[in-house]
Amino acid sequence: MIDKRQQVALYIHIPFCDRRCPYCHFYCFVNRDEALPLRYCENLARELSTHADLLQGKISSVYFGGGTPSALTPRAREFLCRWMCEELGPFLQADAEITLEVNPESALPDTLDAWVEAGVNRISVGIQSMDQEVLSFLGRLNTPASNRRALELCCERVANLSIDLILATPTSSAGALESSLELVQDYPITHLSAYLLEIHPETRFGRDVAQRRWTPRPGEEQAASYLSAVEYLGSVGFEHYELSNFARAGKTSKHNQSYWAGTSYLGLGASAHSFDGSQRWWNLSDAGGWCEALEQGHSPVAGSEVLGAAQRRDEEILLGLRTCRGLDPHWLQGRRALWDAWIGAGYAEIAAGRPRLTPKGWLVMDEIAPVLAQSEDPYSTHRERRT
């Protein structure tokens, strides 16, 4: 149950896509039911209303993700924008950050204007690359030309603009990376997310790799691409504040910071997840079934779990390690030899008394986190005896 005293980050999942990217492991699909988008948006409003008594004036950020929110049908978009203007407002804090994910091919003047007039003040554009060969490999509908057109349109409408890039695909080159990164100097981009290409077994890329149709870039090449991006973005004034995220001063993502800080968030829509600080729950991963549950007055929740002490410990480690803020100083107690070894290897450092990973360390975070989780604080037993 969301605590009435806490601020909340709101995620709204729009699962519809014009094409499903072969690397995407999120719940989304190419819709063939003309009535479903409007019906889906009506049920987003219905689901939020079930939390009305807990959320008044508490929502600090809203994130419309997907899928492709910018590609909703006109009637569905009109409904959702009207709902934002007329009904979402009372739930929002005065300085709420409201982000819309946009794919370049669906970034159109009329479409963007409707969202911005409804309250969107931050746009995240799925550029992925400025190299056509890379975009073709990724199965994207956008092109370098449509990327630039989308950025120009978005820059005219919001002052807070983010882009997504995918690094180290098999077709990437140093020139492709450089041309993509240079966008931050060509446009007033305030935030950038850069991800190494991940291969998930349930995706088409996962099946391709399993069948040896193509091979991912070697680990050392992926690391070099990532560290090149880190160096370049740092040289042009971007703070590397999280594993994959970079921002101009004062432009970090308020919404994503909520996730990394372990605070409450509420997810609306099919497959969306929520968290109240101790319990996590998730919705049905079927748009039709999710709609039907809400229309019949039933809960759309598919499952839940209460985090035990070990899970909370593991999450504290993982969330802390992935940010530049790092971990609480108590994670140094009795573990100094571990941290000294990681510092000597260039994987970690101590900043303002807090242990944290360096960009080189972020590349091996999945190896460091379990070691830290299994390490024992020699003072914990003593403290427990005294209480």
The main sheet comes to: 9 strands, mixed
Question: Averaged pLDDT, please?
Answer: 94
Biggest sheet, spatial arrangement of strands: 7-8-6-5-4-3-2-1-9
Poorly predicted ranges = 378-387
| N-end to C-end Cα span | 29 Å
Commentary on this structure:
The protein is α/β, with parallel strands linked by helices and 387 residues long. Helix content is 41%, strand content 21%. It contains 17 helices and 14 strands. A nine-stranded mixed sheet has the order 7-8-6-5-4-3-2-1-9, with helices on both faces. It has a three-stranded antiparallel sheet with strand order 10-11-12, with no helix packed on it. Strands 13-14 form a two-stranded antiparallel sheet. Strand 2, helix 3 and strand 3 form a beta-alpha-beta unit. Helix 13 packs antiparallel against helix 16. The longest helix is centred in the middle third of the chain and has 17 residues. It is globular and about 60 Å long. It starts with 7 loop residues before the first strand and ends with a helix. The C terminus is likely disordered.
Overview in brief:
The chain is α/β, with parallel strands linked by helices. It is built from 17 helices and 14 strands.
Topology of helices and strands:
Elements: E1 8-14, H1 36-49, H2 52-55, E2 59-66, H3 74-88, E3 92-102, H4 109-118, E4 122-128, H5 132-137, H6 144-155, E5 160-167, H7 174-181, H8 183-186, E6 191-196, H9 204-210, H10 219-235, E7 239-242, E8 245-247, H11 254-261, E9 265-268, E10 273-275, E11 279-283, H12 287-295, E12 301-306, H13 309-321, H14 336-344, E13 348-351, E14 354-357, H15 359-362, H16 365-374, H17 378-386
Parallel strand pairs: 1-2, 1-9, 2-3, 3-4, 4-5, 5-6
Antiparallel strand pairs: 6-8, 7-8, 10-11, 11-12, 13-14
Helix pairs in contact: 1-3, 1-12, 3-4, 7-10, 13-16
